[in-house]
Amino acid sequence: MMELLDAIRQRRSIRVFDGRPVDPALIDRLVEAATYAPSRWNIQPWHFHIATNDARRRVAETMAMNTQYVEEALASMGPEMVEYAARFYADLGRAPVVIGISSPLADDRYDAMDDAVSVGAALENFLLAATSLGLATCSLSAPAWVRSQLAQVFEIPEGSELRSMIVVGYADEVPREKDRHTDVATYLK
Question: Residue 121 in contact with residue 166, Cβ under 8 Å?
C-alpha cells in the first residue's frame, strides 16, 4: 500500500477502464475507508449503493440519457468534447463498478451543508483508498437532468437523495498530470 501523500498526488479522474471485474472484497475495503471520514456528531450521513452487472448496465443506460442535456454546453468546448462525453456516458468508460452515494435530506440548511461536506470527505477517503490499492476511479456529480432516474436505479429510499457517483475499475488510460493552482492560501497574522 502506498503512502498517503503519494496517493493524493497520484489520484486522477480516470474515464477509460479495461473492463476487468473488481473483487467485491476490495470495494468493501474502500467503503470501510470512506466510513472513517469526519461528520457532524459522527452521524455518518452517507450510504453507498454499489451497482455491478445488470444494475451497472441500468445506471449506464440512464447516464447515456444525460448526453442530450449536456451536448449544448459541451459544444462550446468543441465537437471532440461532445463525442468524448457521449462515449463516456454511454458505457461509463467500461468501469465494472458504479457507486451512487446518497444521504438523508436535512431540514436545517446548516445540517444539510455539514452533511454535504461529510459526504465529500467520505468520497475523498474512498478515492484515495482506491488509488492506494491500484484501482482507478472517477467521481461524478450526479447529473441533475437524470438525477431522479438514477435515484430509482440505485434504489435510494424516500427521504434521501443521490449526492454523487463514483465509477471504479482498472485504468486503461494514463491521463496527463494537470497543473495545480498555487495561490490558494493566505496566511493571516
Answer: no
